């Protein structure tokens, strides 16, 4: 490959994998606006229904941990096909589901497909694009994927309002077929020569840790620190400690955690995680507040998020080019300060914010947040050796999904309703929403510490 040129096959490969990842995120983000309806249809509380998002993100996170292994033993086309088959199978199950638990099963199988697709996008970029254009193509890949959260809420709202929630899964199938046609003819089918063995023990340990952590967090909805919560938290800590010890000493690693020896990588990951956990919490909370407090339809709830999500998608390539031109420091500083300023404004307005104000503030929130989010990952990748690109890709993508699950769970904890009348539910939702935004603002302020440490320790541009 010419040092400064990227072949059309590589570009179309990025597009194919990104469309499959897009489809996974589209269904995930579109489901948030359907929760009030699903609560009534399946007679399940918010704490249970939110697992359609939380469990989905958790499975995606776990599958992303395997991406470095599968990249080492499978061709890009093989990895893509496994993801596509799992996604389609889960999608069909979701379409025909007659109860909540079957719907959840379909979503979990779809998550396996998404977990294969998303790391593949960035693996293609890291292995096929010259470093001088890394920011540009990271922005390109992220643009396609980030259209999903832009379209997801309004897609879910409009489709649910007009055709019912099952149509969310029906309509996405032709999109996946288009992805298949592009991917089959462009994705590299050359199998790597590596005979890497899968690290089952390491996968089990980190899986137990992440699942236990989310379950412990979810149990906090009782409002009490119970023995179950303490036990789950201890299991999460012990399992993670075991994973770190085994991974450090093993010849065959699930992921190379030696990348964490770089303070700059750790801080970039913390900045990335902070922006993502708040993003998912707010994305979950806004449709609930819109419908339960403001009394809007699912369609209006989706439309509130659409302008901000579209703006966020449009600016991603711009942010990538900004990194290529300016390096990491200035974009991360500008983004972090803008993010904090918007969150402060959001906190002041949240207790009684109306539809138009919510739409405008959410748009500003997304534009500011995306700058820190997109640049943080690119900056983190730039700190490691080229041969560690697959590992750092797996780590960032896993953290993205896991903290997304955390964000959704935290939002559900804040937005708990015990009232039996619409007025009581509306008041409780508004109070919980306001408290969530204030809490998120504090987290954004703390993330400025990560930024300062990152800038002092980074070695790349």
From TrEMBL:
GO terms for molecular function: transmembrane transporter activity. GO terms for cellular component: plasma membrane. Pfam families: MFS_1. The chain crosses the membrane at residues 12-35, 55-74, 81-102, 108-126, 138-161, 167-187, 199-218, 224-244, 265-286, 298-319, 331-354, 360-382, 394-415, 435-455. Keywords: Membrane, Transmembrane, Transmembrane helix, Transport. It is a multi-pass membrane protein. SUPFAM superfamilies: MFS general substrate transporter. Residues 13-459 form the Major facilitator superfamily (MFS) profile domain. It comes from the Bacteria. InterPro entries: MFS, MFS_dom, MFS_trans_sf. It is found in: Cell membrane. This is Transporter.
């Amino acid at each position: 490959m010419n040092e400064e040129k990227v072949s059309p096959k590589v570009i179309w490969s990025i597009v194919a994998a990104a469309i499959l990842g897009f489809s996974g995120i589209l269904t995930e983000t579109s489901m948030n606006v359907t929760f009030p309806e699903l609560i009534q249809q399946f007679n399940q509380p918010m704490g249970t229904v939110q697992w359609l998002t939380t469990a989905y993100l958790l499975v995606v996170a776990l599958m992303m941990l395997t991406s470095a292994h599968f990249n080492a033993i499978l061709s890009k086309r093989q990895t893509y096909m496994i993801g596509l088959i799992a996604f389609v199978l889960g999608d069909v199950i979701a379409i025909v589901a007659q109860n909540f638990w079957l719907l959840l099963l379909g979503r979990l199988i779809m998550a396996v497909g998404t977990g294969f697709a998303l790391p593949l996008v960035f693996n293609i970029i890291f292995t096929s694009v010259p470093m001088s254009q890394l920011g540009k193509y990271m922005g390109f890949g992220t643009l396609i994927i980030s259209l999903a959260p832009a379209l997801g809420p309004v897609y879910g709202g409009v489709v649910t309002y007009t055709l019912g929630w099952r149509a969310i899964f029906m309509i996405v199938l032709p999109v996946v077929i288009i992805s298949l046609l592009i991917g089959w003819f462009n994705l590299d089918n050359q199998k790597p020569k590596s005979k890497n063995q899968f690290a089952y023990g390491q996968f089990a340990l980190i899986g137990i840790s992440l699942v236990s952590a989310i379950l412990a967090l979810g149990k906090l909805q009782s409002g009490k620190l119970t023995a179950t919560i303490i036990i789950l938290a201890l299991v999460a800590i012990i399992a993670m400690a075991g994973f770190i010890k085994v991974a450090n000493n093993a010849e065959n690693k699930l992921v190379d955690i030696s990348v964490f020896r770089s303070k700059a990588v750790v801080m970039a990951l913390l900045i990335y995680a902070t922006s993502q956990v708040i993003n998912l919490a707010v994305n979950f909370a806004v449709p609930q507040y819109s419908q339960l407090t403001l009394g809007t339809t699912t369609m209006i709830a989706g439309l509130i998020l659409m302008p901000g999500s579209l703006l966020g998608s449009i600016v991603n390539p711009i942010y990538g080019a900004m990194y290529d031109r300016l390096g990491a420091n200035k974009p991360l500083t500008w983004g972090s300060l803008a993010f904090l300023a918007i969150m402060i404004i959001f906190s002041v307005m949240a207790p009684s914010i109306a539809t138009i104000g919510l739409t405008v503030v959410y748009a500003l929130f997304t534009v500011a947040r995306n700058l820190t989010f997109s640049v943080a990952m690119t900056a983190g990748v730039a700190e490691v050796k080229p041969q560690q690109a697959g590992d750092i890709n797996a780590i960032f993508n896993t953290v993205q999904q896991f903290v997304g699950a955390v964000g959704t769970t935290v939002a559900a904890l804040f937005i708990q309703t015990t009232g039996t009348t619409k007025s009581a539910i509306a008041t409780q939702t508004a109070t919980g929403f306001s408290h969530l935004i204030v809490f998120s603002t504090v987290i954004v302020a703390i993330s400025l510490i990560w930024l300062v440490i990152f800038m002092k320790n980074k070695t790349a541009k």
